[in-house]
Design goal:
With 475 residues, the chain is of the alpha/beta class. 34% of the residues lie in helices and 25% in strands. Bound molecules: guanosine-5'-diphosphate (GDP). Its main location: cytoplasm.
């Protein structure tokens, strides 16, 4: 995007007129306020004996947060509930939310925004509402570290199960402490001690047995000992001495986002540092915008969101993705620049990895309605083979997929053929010819399917088979 002539002159410390003269000598007539492209910036700087490097907005706006100790204030814990399916994660969260609402703002009804806040003895706990491991793993894969404590739900009548172990492994990998909620103690077959014993094998050891894990026995269904769960989380959080700087521009992660019919793009973010206000300019992944309103989990508009607060942001220009980082910017142009560059790069990356059609996935593509034409590039040793193939294709039933020969020629498969195939989403058919030069490597890189045959009928048969496979079995 470059910079203006005036700004460039200032940056490299030369009189603006000198820059204009240089530009003029290169055939570029620009005024002070006009913009020089990146190429021109590098060229002129080099010409004037300055070394400049044009950095991407991503680099330009990269930040490392560093807070002085005295700026750090205690903050509430953020908790995720995990455990095997049907062990009671959802029930426990519901029970906790009910308890919490009673203790929280009067008259509030918890909205499903992806996170909720409860209070116990005047202390806040934030729960990420999406139970399960996928959400957690997906967030972690994107570098988002949002959880301080994991509540591991284990049904007392069922014990340690595969997803229990998985949750333990996730918690360990993320170095997040585990509080165990032994659930369903109301059930006749409940055996909490067996759960303790089984967990020891996986390194989750109760405090009373000399370990570091706090255990609570609960019944989510009968609302038994729900307060204990909350108190235990607070105890665990106290050990962690969680802190954050509230007096900074806000940053954190997107927990959930969607397009709301009435309100437009809505993102629930978890503030991790600083304080977020309406009117702030925010970048979240590839989205940006000025915060029109902040809505808390009780559906109320708020004027600020502090560290560990989940809050809905209204006013973004598009819907970000869960796990995206969000950050407040001073300048709307900077925010837009960064968001747009990210969006552009995301689109490029998507195009790069988009694989082209192959005979193997031809029918699944047609079934999905993604493929109505099959483009072919035919290379052969003699012209006669090309003609024979063309005739055979013309006789084929083309009602489901139209076969187009976008290019045919005598000779080996070249890099140009691969480029053409990539551009036109075509399969390359070779008769008694081979890929030459680097075309094979290039085809692998660009995910272009090359099929080599020695006999014509074999080629026809294979393409027919792929095509016949498209027909649904009931026809
Ligand atoms: P999730 O898959 O881990 O979210 O589990 P759910 O919360 O959906 O619970 C699975 C089933 O167990 C549901 O039928 C619940 O009613 C039942 N359940 C959950 N907690 C308890 C409990 O404390 N006692 C009893 N008896 N049943 C429970």
């Amino acid at each position: 995007q470059g910079t203006t002539v005036a700004k460039f002159a200032e940056l490299i410390g030369v009189p603006p007129n000198d820059v204009i003269k240089r530009l003029f000598m290169l055939g570029q007539v620009l005024t002070l306020t006009q913009s020089m492209g990146d190429d021109l910036v590098e060229l002129i700087a080099d010409d004037m004996g300055r070394k400049v490097r044009v950095v991407s907005p991503e680099e330009e706006y990269a930040v490392v947060y560093h807070d002085k100790d005295e700026d750090l204030k205690p903050r509430p814990p953020v908790v995720t509930v995990m455990g095997h399916v049907d062990h009671g994660k959802t029930s426990l969260l519901d029970a906790i939310r009910d308890t919490g609402v009673a203790a929280g703002e009067a008259g509030g009804i918890t909205q499903h925004i992806g996170a909720s806040v409860v209070e116990i003895d005047g202390k806040q706990i934030t729960f990420i509402d999406t139970p399960g491991h996928e959400a957690f793993t997906a967030m972690r894969a994107r570098g988002a570290q949002v959880t301080d404590v994991i509540v591991l739900v284990v049904a007392a009548d069922d014990g340690v199960m595969p997803q229990t172990v998985e949750a333990i492994n996730h918690a360990k990998a993320a170095e997040v402490p585990i509080v165990v909620a032994v659930n369903k103690i109301d059930k006749p077959g409940a055996n909490p001690d067996r759960v303790r014993q089984e967990l020891v094998e996986y390194g989750v050891i109760p405090e009373e047995w000399g370990g570091t894990n706090m255990f609570v026995e609960v019944s989510a269904k009968q609302r038994l000992h729900i307060d204990d769960v909350l108190e235990t989380i607070i105890l665990q959080a106290d050990v962690l001495e969680l802190k954050a700087n509230p007096d900074a521009e806000a940053s954190g992660f997107v927990i959930e986002a969607n397009l709301d019919k009435g309100r437009g793009p809505v993102a629930t973010v978890l503030v991790q540092r600083g304080t977020l206000h309406p009117g702030d300019i925010v970048v979240a992944g590839t989205s940006y915008g000025r915060v029109r309103a902040l809505v808390n989990p009780l559906g109320k508009h708020v004027d600020e969101a502090y560290p560990a607060d989940p809050v809905e942001i209204l006013g973004l220009n598009s819907v970000p993705v869960a796990g995206d980082e969000f950050r407040v910017f001073d300048d709307e142009r900077d925010a837009r620049k960064l968001a747009e560059e990210r969006a552009l790069r995301a689109r490029l990356a998507e195009q790069e990895t988009k694989s082209h059609v192959s005979l193997d996935d031809l029918f699944s593509r047609i079934e999905e309605g993604k493929q109505t034409d099959l483009n072919l590039i035919v290379k052969a040793d003699v012209q006669g083979s090309i003609e024979a193939l063309r005739d055979a294709f013309e006789k084929m039933d083309q009602s489901e997929v139209r076969i187009n020969i976008v290019h045919s020629a005598v000779g080996g498969i070249t890099e140009t053929d691969v480029t053409l195939a990539s551009a036109s989403d075509a399969i390359i058919i070779g008769f008694n010819v081979r890929p030459t030069g680097k075309s094979k490597v290039q085809a692998e890189k660009e995910k272009v399917d090359i099929r080599l045959y020695r006999v014509i009928y074999q080629a026809i048969e294979e393409i027919n088979a792929a095509r016949v496979g498209l027909l649904s079995p009931d026809i």
